[in-house]
Please model this.
Amino acid sequence: MFVHPTFDPVALHITEKFGIHWYGLMYLIGFMAFLGLGKWQITHRTWHGWTGQMLDDALFFGALGVILGGRLGYVVFYQPAHFIQHPLEIAAIWQGGMSFHGGFLGVLVAMWIFAKKYQVKWLNIMDFVAPLVPIGLGAGRMGNFINGELWGRPTNSEYGMIFPQVDLVARHPSQLYEFFLEGILLFLVLWIYSAKPRATGTISALFLIGYGSFRFLVEYTRQPDEYLGLLKMGLSMGQWLSLPMILLGIWMFWWTNRNSPSKF
Model:
């Protein structure tokens, strides 16, 4: 049995009212990993046509997609009634409330705009970007753990953790499960798989399958949102949003391997 150490969410206090938050540092780690891994791909792998400027622009467009899509996704998927009554709070990102699935849709749109700007196939862009994303996802989950949020369901497992800020019940440290599966394992799978030429769209498909499956499984250990609870068939909102990713990924993986002669 473990006890959550209840970290100070502010990593560095600069003034009494201003400081650098751990969650902000996790975003920075994700962005830096994106740039570092992306430059390595451009230099050491067969990604023809990519430049450092394109990589910087991809990060800029992607960051906008994550922030705008993540917030709007939270508004639409999780608390639409609340934000209909309090529309001015939609912009209050500092109060918390981001959705991965909304951020994912935001990135898809942002990369479509990026592809139009550089006259590059959208799926080629997504294949390049997919292996660069999991480290940022893992960093985000570590931020959740440090902040003591998105805790797990009660458990009798010896690996259970008490979150004093919640109650004295042993719970799954689901943030750490997601850190390992969505961050470390998904990165290794995509990084190794993308080391060789693949049919266009296959790497993106594997990301959909991998993330969707890992998130679906971890949701069984994660405490459902209090204002939603479990939905139809006893599944959480996160599981219902992950199912389309898994199904689309399976179809894409089959279709691209069968019909796409194009290799990167």
